Amino acid sequence: MFDKTLWMKRRIFGVGLAAARTGPGRWLTAAMLRSHEPLLALAAAEEMLSRPWRVLALTAHPDDLEYFAGGTIRRLALGGSQITAVVLSDGEKRGNIPDLGRVRREEQLAAARKQGIANVRFFGLTDFGLPEEPRLEPTVARVWAEEQPELVLAFDPKELFPGFANRDHKALGRTVLDLSRKHFGRCRVYLYGTHHANVLVDIGTVLKEKEDAVLTHASQMVYLTEEGHRQAVRWLAEVSAAGAPCQYAEPLYRLL
Ligand SMILES: [Zn+2]
User: Fold this and answer.
1) Helical (H) or strand (E) element with 69
2) How far is the CA of 256 from the centre of ligand 1 (A)?
3) What is the DSSP letter of 199?
4) Fewer CB within 10 Å, N or C, the chain?
5) Please, what is the average pLDDT of the chain?
6) Per-residue pLDDT tens digits for 132-159
7) Could you tell me which of 189, 255, 200 has the C-alpha nearest to residue 57?
8) How far is the CA of 33 from the centre of ligand 1 (A)?
9) Which residue segment(s) compose the domain that 8 sits in?
10) Which pLDDT belongs to residue 1?
């Protein structure tokens, strides 16, 4: 049956991606994401990647980690890091598929296997309701205490594109900001999905793997063609590398 909403969204996403990849749209996004000290930021990333860590990668929905930090996670895994991913909600509210939460958990597990993530923990908190979710802070605090990470990855609450904030992403980021002080000196905290990069991970060698990991979330990859989604991943990596001597990058903000 013809789905008018899906058709409209595909048109909007297609036009939006085309505008972002060319001319003023590309210049604008590159200007917003540009690291102020790209050489220092690249060096900070290589220092981070120079040894293995016990990593706790916190996220709000299935596909966030692959989209916003997939290259970083792949490089950490290739360097021998032991990575536990925490997916706070099942992303069950955005899609017209029966048993959507289960479908998205399975997609997340498949993506994690490709990425070399050792363990995925799901918590089933409310999708599109994390700011009001009383279990958010106790859950993050508990899993942080249980996993004893040396390095934490989480959303930057300031968001990648200010003004287009996802409430769940921001809520997770704020919670991590609040909890970080207890772990000062014991744990590094890097925030992804940031437009204030002080760490810039060169993901050129793992870009194709990042694209494949993103596309594993098939139930969410419905607004563009497969090639369109690959182009979107490459575009974000290219504009994130603006001003740096590499072609594809992921921006991080080191908090601790
Ligand atoms: Zn998300």
Assistant:
1) helix 64-78
2) 23
3) E
4) N
5) 93
6) 999 999 999 999 999 999 999 999 999 8
7) 189
8) 19
9) 4-254
10) 62
Phi/psi of residue 192, nearest 5 degrees: -105, 170
Position of tokens 């916190």?
A: 58
Longest dimension (CA), the chain: 57
What are the φ and ψ backbone dihedral angles of 74, each rounded to 5 degrees? -65, -45
Please check whether residue 217 is in contact with residue 111, taking contact to mean a CB–CB distance below 8 angstroms.
Answer: yes
Determine the distance separating the centroid of ligand 1 and the alpha carbon of 67, expressed in angstroms. 9
The DSSP bridge pattern shows strands 188-192 and 249-254 to be: antiparallel
Token pair, residue 116, equals 């070399």
Ligand 1 geometric centre to CA of 64 (Å): 5
Query: Ligand 1 centroid to 7 CA: how many Å?
Result: 22
Residue 1 Cα, ligand 1 centroid: separation in angstroms? 28
DSSP state of 28: H
Cα separation, 25 vs 120, in Å, equals 36
Among residues 52, 106, 116, the alpha carbon closest in space to that of 85 is found at 116
Q: How far apart are CA 12 and CA 5, in angstroms?
A: 11
For residue 119, what are the β-bridge partners? 84
More confident residue, 94 or 71: 71
Phi first, then psi, for residue 49 (nearest 5°) are: -85, 0
Domains in the chain, number: 1
